[in-house]
Design goal:
GO terms for molecular function: phosphate ion binding. The chain is α/β, with parallel strands linked by helices. The protein is about 30% helix and about 20% strand. The chain folds into 2 domains: about 1-135 and about 315-370, Periplasmic binding protein-like II (D-Maltodextrin-Binding Protein, domain 2), CATH 3.40.190; about 140-285, D-Maltodextrin-Binding Protein, domain 2.
Length: about 375
């Protein structure tokens, strides 16, 4: 408890490190853990149904959704004062591993479970299995730090060559052709990728493979396969590197790009598309549910031709047992997931730099949560 009190004092001073674990208690604290609106009793807290939830809820995974989780936990624990939620944003791969080893009640992942991961989950989901619940959407922004350049347009082919170390300087003819009015400097490109297994990397490489197959010869995945470049831990680590490194470029969720310039992506549409919530929503709205049974995994379109549809998007899933959840954590798990899938929970997302799930998808998510056992 001494450590928790110190953490709360640190939070009150705004000193929560973005790479640290989230450990917010509901002892009347007004800490938000990075979210906004730090009132001790948020306006919509009274609408949250705590049920008989109590105790500690352990979760980990996607760093992409960390800022959303921060805001949700601040609201939820203001209402449900008997629950402590600990979320470690250590990457989708680590989150799934912890879940399938029975260490957490749920995991956050920017990629749906693979068949072998579903099989592994059956060992901890007694009589059931892990399922994917799409909860958070948004654009993967490509952030850049090029002195003298405020607006930058790139396409999938150019991005693939940059991140495969085939285009190495900012005044390369391929970049200049897409940016005829920009004063591109004679400066080495510093391309950064994730060092940890990441669903963001999985979605980014799926985009490169789908939109530029001739220039991206690697199979998509959570682990980075291309040669060269530099690496950093988590989305926050990549954003930090772009902020402080001249010539840098990297990929991370839009919520991490508040003070970073982002690339406009050239698609088949007439005009380049900006990384915005509205443009990501346009793309996510075209996703199809491809999961079976209670699983709600989505298939995204990485090569949209519609005007204003941003092609680089991801969906973060909360992964949970459909059956066989631990009795001690099930009430808190259902209560928290019910809240974040609710109208109020989803309404927080846009303010935090994310896109809420389309109504037809989130309705199915709510129904599935109510049946967890």
């Amino acid at each position: 408890m001494k450590l928790q009190r110190k953490n709360r004092r640190a939070l009150a001073l705004g000193a929560l490190a973005v790479s640290g674990a989230l450990a917010l208690t509901a002892c009347g604290s007004d800490d938000t853990g990075g979210g906004e609106g730090g009132a001790s009793t948020p306006a919509n807290a009274a609408k949250i149904d705590c049920g008989d939830a109590s105790g500690q809820l352990q979760a980990s995974g996607s760093s992409a959704q960390k800022n959303a989780i921060d805001a949700w936990v601040a609201q939820y624990t203001a209402a449900c004062k008997n629950v402590q939620i600990n979320y470690r944003p250590d990457g989708s791969g680590a989150g799934i591993t912890a879940f399938t080893q029975g260490q957490t009640a749920f995991a956050g992942s920017d990629s749906a479970l693979k068949p072998e991961e579903v099989t592994a989950s059956k060992k901890v989901c007694s009589g059931g299995q892990g399922i994917d619940l799409p909860m958070v959407g948004g654009p993967i922004a490509v952030g850049f730090n090029v002195p003298g350049v405020d607006t930058l347009v790139l396409d999938a082919s150019t991005l693939a060559q940059i991140f495969d170390s085939k285009i190495t300087n900012w005044n390369d003819p391929a970049i200049a052709k897409l940016n005829p009015e920009a004063k591109l400097p004679d400066l080495k490109i510093q391309a950064f990728h994730r060092s940890d297994e990441s669903g963001t990397t999985d979605n980014f490489t799926k985009y490169l493979k789908a939109a530029a197959p001739k220039d991206w010869g690697y199979e998509p995945g959570k682990s980075w396969e291309a040669k060269g470049g530099q690496s950093a831990q988590g989305s926050s680590g990549l954003a930090q590197q772009v902020s402080q490194t001249s010539g840098a470029i990297s990929y991370f969720e839009l919520s991490y790009a508040k003070d970073i310039k982002t690339v406009d992506i050239k698609t088949e549409a007439p005009d380049p598309v900006k990384a915005t919530i509205a443009n990501a929503t346009a793309a996510i709205g075209a996703a199809k549910v491809v999961g079976t049974g209670k699983d709600l995994a989505l298939e995204l379109d990485y090569t949209p031709a519609a005007e204003g549809a941003y092609p680089l998007v991801l969906v973060t899933y909360e992964i949970v047992c459909d059956k066989g959840n631990k009795a001690e954590s099930l009430p808190a798990t259902k209560s928290f997931l019910n809240y974040i899938a609710s109208e109020d929970g989803q309404a927080l997302l846009e303010k935090e730099g994310y896109a809420p799930m389309p109504e037809e998808i989130i309705t199915k998510v709510r129904s599935t949560i109510s049946g967890l056992s």
